[in-house]
Structure formats: structure tokens, C-alpha cells
User: What shape does this take?
Amino acid sequence: MTAFAPSDAPRRTRSFWWRVLMQPAGAIACAIIVLLLAAAGLADLLAPHDPTRMAAGRPLTPPSLAYPMGTDELGRDVLSRIMYGARLTLRIGAIAVGISLVLGLTVGLLAAYLRGWLEALLMRSVDVLFSFTETLIALAFVAVLGPSLTNAMIAVGVAGIPFYARTAYASALSERSKPWFEGAVAAGAGPGRLLFLHLLPNVMPTMIVVATLGLSNAILAAAALSFLGLGAQPPQPEWGFMLSAGRDFFSRAPWLMLFPGLAIALTVLAFNLAGDALREAMDPRSLLREDAR
Amino acid sequence: MTVLDIRNLAVAFGATPVVHGVDLSIARGEALALVGESGSGKSITAMALMGLLPARASMTADAMELEGQDLRGLSDAALRRLRGPQMGMIFQEPMTSLTPVLTIGRQMTEALRVHFGLSGEAARARAIDMLDRVEISRPADRLRQYPHEFSGGMRQRVMIAMTMALEPRLLIADEPTTALDVTVQAQILDLMRTLVRETGTSLLLITHDMGVVAQMADRVTVMRHGRLVETEAAAPLFAAPRQDYTRILLNSVPRLDAPLRPAPQPTPPVLGFRDISRSFAGRGLLRRSEPVRALDGVTLDIARGETLALVGESGSGKSTLGRIGTRLDLEHDGRVEIDGIDITGLRGRALRKLRSRVQVVFQDPLASLDPRFTVGRTLGEPLRIHQGLAGECLRTRAADLLAQVGLPSSALGRLPHEFSGGQRQRIAIARALAVDPAVIVADEPTSALDVSVQSKVLDLMEDLQRERGLAYLFVTHDLAVVRRIAHRVAVMRRGRIVEMGPVSAVLDDARHPYTQALLAAAPVADPTRARRPPAPMPHTPDKPLSLVSDGHWVAA
Assistant: This one.
């Protein structure tokens, strides 16, 4: 009889989040995201002005101590608008990705689990959606639903479904062909158990990485829609919309485009880096690399 | 004349020493086998020698010389020049050692041109000559082919041809035949023996298989836990091992001449296969290719308390039959019966209920447990489903199951990756036992385990069979394991049963040429046994099974 000794299997020496933060990408991403969350969460306390109050200062004041990012053509404080805009941006990202993730996972898991004609139907539909660019689908959606921030979120979310569905499908397919899945089938597990207790938790790590990377995509897409006037409506302090409104004054007041643009770029960068860091930390091969150091 | 001399080699990963004070020396033309179980440090020792240790490893040695040249502290470039003409290497999986995007010819001639400065034409001639020597037919044509166009055994021949073309002083072979079928293994070993003898190359053979050691080695070094246990000439080591560990290792090896298990009382069959056929639709890129016939009219019965071994080489259909028996594969022709009742058409809830009668244990114990389920959840799952247990009751029952396979209840809260291979296989067996099945289909359950662990798992399976009257359908490629565990055996080839009967009848009085070839190829852990050259496989169409003696059926 074998003694019950600690096994020869690799030990997890450090916690998962530690591995994420120890990478430069992870640390930078985390810093920006914390900043963003603080700006969004504490906007009521920290923002110097009401983001929609006109004539908080003289119109088109350049950045100064009183107005660190200047004021826009209606005299609204750009810093305050950026801070409140962070709320909108995060909400857009979360809701759009939420829609893509939930629906994409459902389609992908079902297709991989059911096989047969339903698999063909689901995945071929996804392929058809995939053949259009995301922005085009989102545009078509907003065109039907009408321009508003909520519709833009839904549109971006729906446009993202094919990618999430494909990823979930591929991952679930590889998991279900492994012996442990067949072991669970042999143990008598029914469809609910197999789908929710076995497949879903094993597919989730991949999907979390995809969703994190997808956040930046969704934020960018929603900003683009708002820029085109199909998303946020005045006076909402949405970054994409602010960028678009600043165009007319670009030569006189470049800060109107600089700061929203910077905010979008930094946010997108942060989520991209975060996704990379998560992927790296979850990749078993990266564990080996770390050991090798 | 010493080719390789290593003294007091130590390797550590960070602060953890993994190899301590190992001495190795190999004379010209000598074959040294380095044996040990997983974690013994045998592969690390070889990697240190080849300069392939990972960057985190630190290595010290009093001496490490190949042909008098000090290997310690050589630069990567200097090592690269050594590999090939000085040190040839053959690994377990030839596909990973060959570049898939280049033709065999390109890969073979490149090494010859780089190391020997041969011209294109001369290199080609030498490559053809080498392929010819490893008995690859039409070598000139074969040079234009890519690695994927060769079978596993052929690829290993190509690998050997490539390596031996450079006439290395030392050939390092790391589990060179572990991934191959026994008949192919016998041919490859025979080939390596011949080439080594002809060229005077020294051989360092790293393996876990005592049968391979007995056939190949002049001397044997046994390692355990990173230490050298003993080094001894092969014949005395096998005849009278001095160290306890070597003795245990040798005793754990299942033998083809071991005593048989007594046959159980005849009982009605619990699991029956009736004329089972299964084809896999081949799918080409543009056109549908011919379907592959994995099973062709197989009929079998397994009785209560009986172990029926299913043997054959890869592609013989033995695993497919096992999957059909466990109802993991439902797309077949023919009928499957449990306790004489046809269950072929059952689906959904009715099928799930019936699953408690037939359970399964897979080859790879890590892959067969959900990586995110604790042992308690894995064991609890069938109990919850079939017996509706919950709470404390469930826990007690799961702990009880663990105790039956020799694990403490503290294992319940742990995840699969925290266990060793043998422990995981015990957990998989416990899960199969949870629902009190009549039959367990075990698909190569011990092939991924070390011999000493294999022996304990086989003991456990035997004990459980005695206590519970379990029937096993035991899928394996290892005839010695068959002898150890089975009552009856069915030999399969290309989807058909070619010979079936009591173990004694089939193994001691094999009638079918394929069974005879399998028996001849099985490596025997005894260096004094005459090495029989592998017989060429006859390609005769099989006739229907006919009875030759009591319960012994042969298709010939």
C-alpha cells in the first residue's frame, strides 16, 4: 500500500493574483484600473464641478489650476465630465461584455454538449454573424433600435457574441473529449450536472481572459458608436461623444479631444494588459517558465 | 577504453537537490541501462549529460568527460557541435524530434553536411544507405516524404537512421520504444542492438522497462530518489540483485511465466457483446474517405467474478469495444446485453440509471478526474445521483470508499493534482466502485504507472474482485499483465477477435500466428533468455472462430 505522502504533482507556490501582479503588464493594468474605479466611484466627492452644469467657467478655457483639463464650448468642466464619463464607460463595458459572455457561453456550451444538428445550426449561425465586422452588426442594431446609450450597449454586446461563442465552443469541445468528462458520464451525471458542474467551471478560466480582453474592445466600440452620434446623447459625459463634440473646436481648444482620447486609450490599454496578464498567469506553460527563473 | 565518465554528479533545482552523487561510466561498445521509476532522477541525469537541463537547474560534478573531453561548462555552441557526431540522441516520441515541415531527406542530409561537410550528393547517398540499414524499403523514394507519412515505428527507424548516420561515440536513447506496440518495439530493439554492435557505439539506455533492460544492456545502473542504488552487470543483477530496492523492482515486473489465477466457478454472463461492429467515417478535406472499420462482428461474454483481458496493438479496436461496453459509444451495430437483457437501445434517463452496472477506469489517472472537483465531490457524484445520498451520510460513504482503496479520509478535501499517479488511479477505482457495479471496464489502467505501483494497483483490483464478485473487462497491450490478472483472454487484431480462451490455453498454447508473434515480441525481464529475432507478421485473412479445445477459440 502506498504511503499517503505529498505527491510529486507540481505545487502552486504562489497565489494566482500574485502571479498576475508580478508581471509588469499586470501591475500597470491594475494601477490604471484602480485609478479608473476611483474616478468613477468617487466622482461625486472628487469632481470639482457638476459635469452637466453649463457655464461652470468661461467657455473654452484652456487647462488651468481651476480647470485642470479646461472647459468645453458650453463652459462645462472637462475633468468632471471625464470622471463621470468613467462611470458610463465602465458600465458600458460591463453590460456589453456581460451580454456577449452570457449568450456566447450559452450558445458555445450547448453546441459543444449537444452535438448533432443543433450544433451545426448554432455554430453555422455564429459563423454567419462572424462574417460581418462587429461594428457593422452594432451599427445595424442601433439603426433598428434607435440611437441611445442603452441600445449602443446592447448592440456592442450582441456584436461580440460570435467570438465568445466560438471560444466557449472550442474550449468545451476539448474538455468534453477528456476522460474525466466521460468518467462523469459513466457515473450517471445528467445533462444539467455535466453542463453546469463539469463543463462550465472548466471553460470559465478561458472565458474570463477573453472577457477581460473583450472589455477594451467593447469600450472602444461603444465610444465609436457615440462618436458617430448613435450612442450617448447630450448632455451625457460619454468619452466617445465628448471626442466627437470636440472636433469642431479642435484648432482652438485641442484639450477637448486630447483628454477624452487619452482616457479611452488608457482604459483600453489597461484592459488589454490585464487580459494578457491573466492569460499568462493561467497558462500552465507560464508556470513552468516562472519555475525556470 | 572509457567513452563516458561521470563522477559525483549532483543536480539541484533551486534549493531542492534532485540528483545526488551519481557515478556513471561506459566503455567502448558497451550498453549501459539507467533504470528507475518516475522521480528517480534518471532523465535528469541524462539531460545533465546532454547539456539540456533547464536554466533553473544547477549542476556540479567531479568529472564529466566524453572521449576525454570535459563537458562541464561548455557553451551552447560547443555542445551543439558535440551533439550528433559525439552524442546521438533518440527520444520516446519520434514525431517531436523530427521537423514536420521538412522532408526526411532534407533533415538527414542537413546533419551530414553540417557535421561532416559532405556534398549534397554524398550526403544523399549516405542517407539512402542508412535508411536501407534500418530496413526501410525504397529508401530513395522515402527521402522525399514528410514525417507524418511514416507510422510510429517507421519514424523511430528514421530517427535511428539519422542519429546513427553521424556515427556517434555515444548513443543516448531515452525510452526509445515506450510509445510503440510490442511487435514494433521488438523490431526496433533488435535493430538498435545490431547497429550498436556493428558500429562499436556505446549505448546509454534510459528506461523503466526491465524487459527492455534484459534484452539490451550489458550493465545496469539502478536509480531511486536521485541516488544510485547499484551498478552491476546485467546477468548477475537479474539473477541475484544485491539491493532490496532492485529486488522489489524486479519482483514487481509481471512475468509471462508466472503462475495462473485459478478459474472462477462458471456463472451466467453479466455483460455480453453480440456481433458488435463499429465504423468511423473518415473525413478528408475535400472528399469523404473510406470509413475505417474499428470493430467487425465481435461477440464476447463476461461472467460474474471473471477478468477477461482484451489484448491487441494500437488500432485493434480493443478500447472501442470497452467504450461500447460502458455505453460511452452508442453508435455501433450489434447488441449489448447486461444480465442477459438487451440494453442497446436505452438512452437518456433509463441509460443513466443502468450506468451503475458498468463502470470505467481509464489509462491516464490525472485526465480521468475533473481537475476542479475535490476527491470528495468526485466520489460523491455517483452516490448522489444513484443513491440520493447527501450531507454527512455522503461523506461517510465516500470516506469508506477511500478506505477500500487504501487512502485516508483526509484526501476528501483535496484536488486531483495533489496526488501521485498511483493514488489518482486508486481514486478513479473508488469512483467506479461507488455505485456497486457488476462490471468494471478498465482501459490500460496501469500502463501509465511505475511497475511497483502497477503491482499494487493490480493487487487492489484482485482483492476487490474477490470481495465483491466484480467482473473486469481489462483492456491492455501487456501480455505479462494479462497473465497476472486475467482468467480469460481475447486477442484482437484489426477489429476482430483472432483467438480467445482461458489464459493458460492462449498464452501457453497459442494457435493463431498473431498471438504467437505478440508472445515472441513481449520483452522478458531475463537476460539469459535467448533473444529471438522478431518474426515477420503474416498477413493472412482471418477465418471465423472455431473451437480447438475447451473454451479455446481460434480464427485460423
Notes: Residues 2-251 of chain B form a domain with the Rossmann fold fold (CATH 3.40.50.300). Chain B has two domains: 2-251, 269-357+437-554.
